[in-house]
Every structure is written in structure tokens, then in C-alpha cells.
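Morning. Coffee machine broken again, so started the prediction first thing and wrote up yesterday's gels while waiting. Chain of 157 residues, entered below exactly as on the submission form.
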Amino acid sequence: MRKRDLDIIKALERFRCLSRDQVAALFFANTKNAINNANVSLKRLRDRGYIDANTERQPFVYFPRPATIKKTGNKVDHFLKMADVYIALIKHKEPRRFDVEPRYDADIRPDVFTIWKGSPFFIEVQNSVYSANVMRKKLERYQAFYDGGEFIKSLQK
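Came back before lunch.
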């Protein structure tokens, strides 16, 4: 198996799912025909049983095997958006760290934690509308987490 194939599988495990176009952007952007190259690699990995796909979506959405989320579930679009955030960031500079759905405690569960351009960020990726009150409370919890020193301890893990 090629190193790039292993990297694709690791990315699927990290993001839970990726579209064909996201795989092309992440692993084949420097090739002449990124989409065709991604299709060939993804088909090979799928045929050999390393990954799975939802073929009802266009472009196909790929999952690690076994899938860690339901292939037709509501969370798929949420995870695809988190991958879009990563792809947008790497166009400017590779994040030093990019954790998808890290777990700190019951109250602190960002969609993404990243260290990008030397600064830490909690990123919330919303497919639905949150009220101002809900977002304010969430921001207050993040601020208390940071101010209480738990944030620094979590970076050392």
C-alpha cells in the first residue's frame, strides 16, 4: 500500500468522512488531474475493503472502515464542513494542531481545536442557527476554561 493511501485512510479516521473533492484537495492538489487521481485511489481502497462510501451522494462521500458515523446520518455534513475548515486553513498555512471534536469536559466540546499561525482557536461549525443566548453561554464556558488554566493543561497532553 502506498504512503498516500495510508494518509487518506488516516484522514478519513480523523475527519470521520471526506468527499472525493476534499480528498483531491488534500492529497492530489499538486497533480495535473486531481479529481481523476483521487477517483483511482479511492476506488482501489474501496475495492480492497479499506474504506467505504456513500454512493448516493455526488460526489461520493468516503468513510473509514468500519465507519464511525452513520453514512446517511445528519452528522455527515457537519464533519464535511470541519474538513472544509481544515482545507481553507492549509491554503494559507498548515495548522500546528487540528483536533476534530476534542473532549475536555462535559461543558467544553468544540467542533475543532486548532493552533494556527501561533494562536489557539476553538472553532464551532454550525449547520443550524443558534440563538445569541446559547452562543453567549458557550463563549462564556470557553473563556472560563481558558481562564481557569485547564486549557493550558490540555495543550500538554
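The chain has a mean pLDDT of 92. Going to sketch it on the whiteboard this afternoon.
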